[in-house]
Amino acid sequence: MSDGNYYTISPTGLGIELSVTAFVRSELVETHFRYCALRGSSNCVMEDTIEVILQDRDRELLRPQTSPTLAGLAGALLAGLYGLWTMFALPGFRKVPIRLKVPYLPSSVAQTNNVMKLLEGREGPLADLGSGDGRLVLAACSMGMQCTGFEINSLLLAYSRCRALWRGVAPSQAQFINSDFWKTDLSRYRNVTVFLAPGVMEVLEEKLLKELPCGARVVACRFPFPSWAPSASEGSGLDQVWAYDITADLTATHTPAPPTRCPPAANQSQQILHH
């Protein structure tokens, strides 16, 4: 029944009497009745005026809605960014066993400077294992070192070569090669820099002990070797780096001891001083 601008809905038996004016939308009444039925009320009064009900409905319609077009554009953007990251960071991974896969991890300016401090005064060729964009190689070249960067990501390799060319670095001074360092004999290098994931550092320990000459220095960025005692360290936090000198003492932490090119501890100090 109606009373001014107020309306009553009265369920009678199996039927429902709805007495509303012609301009009230039936769905508003039905929604209100369902709400009353859920409360178990037999006589329900719509206490809001028609104007208030319609204003509430307009507010519902005017609420911000997620546009399918915007959602599609956002999804396409995320997919594009992921695809770009995949092309930049992952090419060449199929060449490496899954347990040895490492994503591209660029070193910071502070970290690069810390590495150079630990290489100061060093002689002999340097190998950067997973050289990325070439920043460590080019920094070491500026100190007069002859460097080789190992990188299997074709895009990063091309970028590194372009950077070296732009800076006027001779190919004989900085060489970037598309090669898997896990399958390369590193015995000719007296200095090695690594910025790899923690999961491969233990495996790399055995390879370096087996192949590097006695007195060689390995500098690890951000993630230290799990079994080696560092000879020196620079920086802190994410920019920390560690230097490890290949000596017979390093083999003592491995069981069984891996093969090494270092002589017994009694003779190795003379060789280190000689180099």
Automatic annotation (TrEMBL):
Family: Belongs to the ANT/ATPSC lysine N-methyltransferase family.
A single MF term (Gene Ontology): protein-lysine N-methyltransferase activity
Keyword Transmembrane listed: yes
Record keywords: Membrane, Methyltransferase, S-adenosyl-L-methionine, Transferase, Transmembrane, Transmembrane helix
GO cellular component: mitochondrion
Name of the molecule in the record: Uncharacterized protein
Region (Disordered): 255-275
Transmembrane in keyword set: yes
Any single GO BP term: methylation
TM regions (residue ranges): 70-90
